[in-house]
Specification:
Layout lengths: L4 E5 L5 H10 L5 E5 L11 H17 L4 E4 L2 H15 L4 E4 L2 H10 L4 E6 L1 H6 L1 H8 L5 E6 L3 H6 L6 H11 L9 E5 L7 H8 L4 E4 H15 L11 E4 L4 H11 L6 E2 L5
Parallel strand pairs: 1-2, 1-3, 2-9, 3-4, 5-6, 5-7, 7-8, 9-10
The structure holds D-glutamic acid (DGL).
The site of D-glutamic acid has 18 residues, from helix 3.
Length: 265
Amino acid sequence: MAGPIGVFDSGIGGLTVARSIKDHFPGEKLIYFGDTAHLPYGEKSREAIRTYSERISQFLLSQGCKVVVVACNSASSSAFDVVQEVCKGKAEVINVIDPMVQFVDQKFSGKKVGLIGTHRTIESAEYQNQLEHLASSVELISLATPLLVPMIEEGYYRNKISHEIIENYLSAELFSGIEALILACTHYPLIEDEIKEILGENVMVLGSPDILAKSLKIALNHQNSEGRDIQKDHFYVSDFTESFEHSTLKFFGEEIHLELMDLWS
Ligand code: DGL
């Protein structure tokens, strides 16, 4: 299949999704775009995220991508239709919300399920809207957990401080009786173990990177675009700092070279 897989996120966190794609599809090439000039998307308006996502999709198409993956939950919740419109007839588009909603609807019908994410993701109510669209009987309980992204970015995970912050959020009364928790953010795979430890084995913890892989497999089988072949993966950012480059180790499991690509000047 010709052409790379395009993946975009507000920054470096989406590398958790890129990692999972590489693990599931080792033969595929990636073009990653992290919009580090505009992060965090979780605190931005819907309109701003739509504008950024439109430009990034155009860039990924210009690189010959056959599939565009919206790895960012905040962008998936606010700009999926914009990305679809840009890519119409040229590349398939998948996001991190649809596969999760389908999975939860099938596995947890009639059950109570929790959801944590950024302000933008939770305010968009996109998970709830999609469950309603499916006439699902899942009872979804959502909570914005805005401290978690900066906490993880500053390296606070698997320690006492992160444990207390996560426990504080998850002990909210509204989560009592949940049977699963959706981790609706690129960064949360890094604290998945801590969350599992706090919630205990009766609550299933659902991360998007792995659930997305199934949708991507279908998209790769369906796609027929004549993308341009590339020899190696590329990881672009809209603003470069050494600290971004160092943090690739955390999110991708290996330090990778970031290339600056300014799409806005
Ligand atoms: N990538 C964002 C998400 O998954 C988290 C970081 C941000 O707010 O930009 O919602």
